[in-house]
Amino acid sequence: MAFLDIKNLEKVFGQNRVVKDFNLAIEKGEFISLLGPSGCGKTTVLRMVAGFETSSSGAILIDGKDVVSKRPNQRNIGMVFQAYALFPNLTVAQNVGFGLKVKGIAGSEADNRVAEMLKLIGLPDLGNRYPFQLSGGQQQRVALARALAPKPQVLLLDEPLSALDAKIRVSLREEIRMIQQQLGITTVFVTHDQEEALSISDRIVVMNGGRADQIGTPFDIYNRPSTRFVASFVGTLNLIEAKVIDPAANRISIGDQAITLKEPLGAAKVGDTISLALRPEAGSIVEGANGDTALVGQVMTSNFLGSVIRTRMKVGTAVISFDMFNSPGLTPPSVGETVTLRFTASDLLIIRE
Amino acid sequence: MQSDKTSVPAATVTMPVRTRRTLPLNWLGVLPFAIFVTLFLIMPTMKIVVGAFQTPDGSLTLDNIRGLFTPSIMAAYWISIKISLASAILGCIIGFGVSAAVVLGGLPQWIRGPLLTFSGVASNFAGVPLAFAFLATLGPVGILTVFLKTQLGLDLRLLGFNLLSFWGLTLTYLFFQIPLMVLIITPALDGLKREWREAAEILGASGPQYWRMVAFPILFPSLLGTLALLFANAFGAVATAIALTGSSLNIVPILLFAQIRGDVLGDPHLGYALAFGMIVITGIANTLYIWLRARSERWLK
Amino acid sequence: MKRIWAWGALTFGLLYFFLPLIGMTNFSLKMRRGEYSFDAYARVLADPKFQETFGFSVMMALFTILFGIFLIVPTAYWVRLKMPGLRPYIEFVTLLPLVIPAIVIVFGYIRLYNTSSWLPLTGTTTGTNLLLMFGYATLALPYMYRAVDTGLRTIDVTTLTEAAQSLGAGWITILSRIILPNVLVAVLSGAFLTFAIVIGEFTMAALLNRPAFGPYMQLLGANRAYEPAALAVIAFGITWACMGLIQLVTRFSKHTRAQR
Ligand SMILES: Nc1ncnc2c1ncn2[C@@H]1O[C@H](COP(=O)(O)OP(=O)(O)O)[C@@H](O)[C@H]1O
Ligand SMILES: [Mg+2]
Q1: pTM listed for this prediction
Q2: Contact A85/B199, CB-based, under 8 Å?
């Protein structure tokens, strides 16, 4: 049985159904990310778990017990906010010890726990500072320590990194993941940054308009998106329109070039239009690259992005982007050049809504 | 003690020093302002301060200050301080209650705008007309006095209430003290972030615990600072007191007013000392205010 | 529960403010025995002393505002543009009138600028009026300076000045055609507040023996019953109008800015 079990959760604000039939079962010690564009209801789900919003219907069970009727201060949950939300009048150590103090834990037991937490987040010497004397990254670490100090059953993080610089964002997210694994704490992490979600999660929930579109491992979500939304939101994906030529033989055409797919076309009829997805990194124009399938097109633009060169080419009416890894010996394709993109047929995914 | 006259406050003292470093032309731009402030703010004040330590023939003395420590003058200071403190404390508490009701109490949002506008008006409605308004309300034939007597059988006079007294003046001052508190404390209450409350709650704190450990300590400098400001505000108020009580209440501003008009103390330099005492008291209150505000702003950055 | 408590606090506050206002309005209408009438207002408005003192105070207010604008706008602008290091000192000085009671300042005036001093301002009527105006400008200084300085903060003074200079504008042009229009809302807010302060000011006018509205009200209060209440209603109306105008210009400026 799942440790944190969310069943048929709904939230209505006035006329607005913000969370719709949301189901999620999280195992003990799992790190789950809620991923989706801003306004899709991620924060609302998290706040219902925390108890700051009451759900319109549905159940939230922690360790088998329904917590819906409990107040936030009775749920034993830790939470980290986007804007740190450290208490400005308390020192770092007092902030971390806050949860212990209100629970009546004092003396050396509390002091030891605070010291342990500060060591865990790598700031053992900053206990006497005030929040305004810390950098954003340090403040968010302290907020994490504060949330973890009372040993919560579940840890919730609402876009904890989005107020930070790019560099710190990457290092801190790895640190959060390490601490999470070290403590084995069940964690729900909200983000709109797909790279963040992909890099640190056990599983990802991709949310769209209040619903969970797909739940799966980062590998699954990235490589086998189940909806057009997931495919377009996670990674940069080519969505290509194709015409069915021969459903029985899985033959389709893209800009008059015929291709045989690996996946069965199912119930599609001759002349139907279907959507295919192709990752930019799936293909290559380098001679001799392995690949059983090819598309010929004309280069429209070619952009140097540092580690990769992203080229857009035109195949009939379709536009396909593909990436090549940068290397000193490489000559980037020039605009107007005709190139052949080779890839494996199984990289072409059929998107069924 | 003549040399004291040149030691005017920081802004003008730094002038000759800085002139050597920056272009003198730059200083020309602030010259009109500097002259105005020197002539009509700093020199008059210095005149009082210096005068408080001078004998009529210009020599240094502490006699004037010592002269303040007579029973009647001390009583005047004492009642002034009491009224200012009472109206400041009550103003703080009531103003805080009103502001908290609007910001945190879940009242409809539209109340805010009118309340703040109204507070702006009321905090500026002081002086003579305010005294008239209170006379018409709580005076011997005021609407509330008459209402209480005829409808509820409560005779304020028999209960010992008199508008021309400590409590009467305090009640009157509250009319501008409360809205001033509302104007100053509302932004501070707005500054209490929702996340602080939620963070405290999810860490297991109850409502009272949140107020005791987080919200109140954060607001404390603002509260105390505003208290100091309200105190100074009441302490320097002359017009309301004179219009309300004539000269029947022996408070410092009224005493000083009478002294300037007709030298009732019989010693012009004792008047300087009296005024100097006022500056010292409002100065202390305001220094407290500025210091505490700087502290609270540091936190809320 | 919380809601009830909140409504209670608000009601108490509102009662505190409205009772005196009701009281004075009620009283001002009761001059004629047994019925409500505007007799008190008629009496007050017809009093030549009222017209005289009110006119005097309005003139004082207008001159104070003009003087304040001419003194403060260029100074605040100059400090922002050329001497930002001076700002804390100037700010400190502009706050002093809140610390030093008006009665003390005017006491200083009387001793410093009397007939036997080097600048015998109180010797002549014009001189005393001038001194009173300077006194009012001092009282208004904290509000006026703050308003203008806040207004200047929202515009990029340096860029605007350099742009104007590159087009050949002189200081007078820059101040009157570029800076002033841009901080007009702030200046107007400060001006209305100044007006509200000056119009009913008592202490300075009384001690300098000028026939201003404040001392007139006080005198009337000592001698009459119903007229003071009518005066209080009028004074309240003026204060309210000044605050209303501040709100109006602020809102109007937001409106026009949004349209751009
Ligand atoms: N208290 C509220 N009242 C009304 N609507 C709300 C409230 N909170 C959030 N919403 C709406 O719910 C939707 C989802 O919000 P949220 O959960 O914050 O999205 P996310 O965190 O994914 O960006 C948004 O359209 C937002 O406008
Ligand atoms: Mg959100």
Answers
A1: 0.80
A2: yes
